[in-house]
Amino acid sequence: MKMDYRVMEALEMLEQERGIPVDTILDALANALVSAYKRSRGAAEEARVTIQPDEGEIIVYAQELDEDGNVVREWEDTPRDFGRIAATTAKQVIAQRLRDAKREQVYDVYEGRDGDLVTGIVQQHDHRYTILDLGNAEAIMPGSERIPYERLERNARAKALIIEVRKETKGPQIVVSRSHPDFVRRLLDLEVPELLDGTVEIRSIAREAGHRTKIAVVSHASNVDPKGACVGARGSRVRQVVNELRGEKVDVVQWREEPSQFIAEALGPAKVREVRVDEEEKSAVAIVSEHQLSLAIGREGQNARLAARLTGYGIDIRSDSPLRRPRRDFPPAGRGANTGGATR
Predict the structure, then answer these.
(1) Alpha-carbon gap, residue 330 to 206, rounded angstroms
(2) What domain count does the chain have?
(3) Is residue 65 within 8 Å of residue 46, measured between CB atoms?
């Protein structure tokens, strides 16, 4: 029995355009045809199928096996209507191989791209996850990776950070995030050329997604102000980032080699009068004036908490008032601190 010539032409086209070897598809087709044969009336329990690629000839050989599984007898047993079965099976095998090839292609495109920024169209959004259409693939954003209380409208464009690419049986799964600290880093890369060319470097990031992010930057050129480069003229550069974050506050502070100076910078916009650092304990006491105390601590302790994460020092904030010396301790550890790469 001969296979339809159009099927063979389709196989050759797949090899040329998609790089799927004809032999690979023929092997898969032969296995599928064995299963199809066994479902036919009067079929033997064991069989094999041969396909001659040049002629497109398909032959079914029924087999008799001994107790050890060895072939003791073999005869041709190609069903009369096997051409129709073969054509249908071939279409199914080719379609499956195309899906497999597309999945492999998508995986090859996104493998190793953890930490990259992508833009997609929101296809689905509920309390469990958000699906983004990236054009050539879909990305999933779990609820834990979204900005709290952010609602992404269907068909809206949204940016996200790739945090994992998994190879699964149903195809590659691209996991993205908008709550990761490095999401803010990549957004700034788009707006600040000095970050891309290495003139300015982000040393650390601390973030409470949906509320506030603090970024410590340093300049490697004496004539470039790192804060000014990131903020932009009249705040134009950082404003683009804030818009993408739907109004989340972004504080850019200057990284200092001296811990006491860095801690004072990190507690901005509050003005710190003195910082006493204990290097062994990785802790510090920050002294502020009475009227700066609430600003240094921030709403529900957020400003001080982020400063502790940004610097890596536990910070104890005290008033310089002799009548009132409240004490608030803020440890350095916590979700949202990030000093490099795409890890939490």
Answers:
(1) 14
(2) 4
(3) yes
Q: SS3 of 163, please?
A: strand
Distance CA 53, CA 135 (A): 36
Instruction: Name the band, by pLDDT with cuts 50, 70 and 90, for residue 327.
Output: low
Q: In sequence order, what are the residues at sequence separation of 6 or more whose Cβ sits closer than 8 angstroms to the Cβ of residue 31?
A: 49
Query: At residue 211, what is the residue type?
Result: H
Task: Please tell me whether residues 151 and 192 are part of one structural domain.
Answer: no
Q: Which token pair is 152?
A: 């992404």
Question: Tell me, what amino acid is at 34?
Answer: V
- pTM beyond 0.90: no
Go through the chain and tell me how many residues it has: 344
Domain of 210 in residue numbering reads as: 180-255
159 and 102 part of one domain? no
CA 265 to chain centre: 32
Residue 184 CB partners (closer than 8 Å, separation 6+): 205, 207, 213, 215, 241, 245, 250
Residues 217 and 281 in one domain: no
303: exposed, middle or buried (Cβ count in 10 Å: 0-12, 13-18, 19+): buried
Whether residue 191 is found in the same domain as residue 169: no
Phi and psi, residue 182, nearest 5°: -70, -15
**How far is the C-alpha of 89 from the C-alpha of 91, rounded, in Å?**
5
Compute the distance between CA of residue 245 and CA of residue 162 in angstroms, rounded to an integer. 16
pLDDT of residue 257: 95
Rounded to the nearest 10°, the torsion over CA 72, 76, 77, 81 is 160
CB 206 within 8 A of CB 338: yes
CA dist 91 and 64 (Å) reads 30
Helix intervals (H) in 201-276? 226-231, 236-244, 259-266
Secondary structure (H, E, C), 50-77: EEECCCCEEEEEEEEECCCCCEEEEEEC
Structural Rg of the chain based on CA atoms: 32
Do β-strands 171-177 and 157-168 pair in parallel, antiparallel, or remain unpaired? antiparallel
Summary mean pLDDT of the chain: 88
Please give the Cα distance from 146 to 160 (Å, whole number): 9
Sign, CA torsion 224/183/158/247: negative
